[in-house]
Fold:
Amino acid sequence: MSAPARKRQRANTSGDTSNPLSTTSDTDYKSLISTFDLPTTQSLLLSAAQHHPTVAQSILTKHSEILAAERSRVIDFDHYSKSIWRALRDADKLSGSRAWEASFDVSTSIKSAAQKMVKGAPAHASLGTKKSALYTLRKICKTVALGRNDTCGHEVYNTLTGEQTLENGMLDIISVMSEQEKEIMRGDGEWVGKMEELEEMGDFDGIEDVLVEMGLGGSGDDDENESESGRENEGKSVDNVDSDGVENVIESGRCLFHARLL
Structure:
């Protein structure tokens, strides 16, 4: 007796397709996602957040947790000033072309350190982190200023002051500080005193801009304004002095803007 014929499977005419990942475990998803590059992962996550409120809420919650952790963490950047001091000290032992070539490496290291400090002290960073960056950049300024008497130090100084690398780093950090944070820094007598000392040394032209951006003003503002006002009113009688004009000149003299410890 022959076996009964096997029934032929009915064709799928509804257009439905089976999902090969319907039984994929969490571990399998993790493995799949690990093969994606960052742009792909971000794109998929953004799409999921836009279509699924629970995903969007999870992203917001995680972001808040990250910001809270950053605000409570203090990053110490002082190691940059120490390494730069050592680099300049070692380069001081060189002479001729070797010292000149070393200056490029030292300048590049300082620029890199400044960039890392700016990146490491964003708006959501703690005040302690921002403060450490400002203290360290000031220390590097003084180190560079005092070490410019040899070949390497001189070239490093010329490069950094020409580009105002360190001053711009300070301005970038101050630009993302809140008014409350700036007020606290203005009350930091140690930092203010050392910044004013650096300005009086006259080695970095951009330090006055840093002080102004912090709301402190430069030490030379009053003398400059008085001199400018005096030239403008020269030859005029007291009765003919335009008081509004003098106030405008004084105000314009204060409108300077742009955005480690030995």
Notes: The mean pLDDT is 78. The first helix runs from residue 26 to 33.
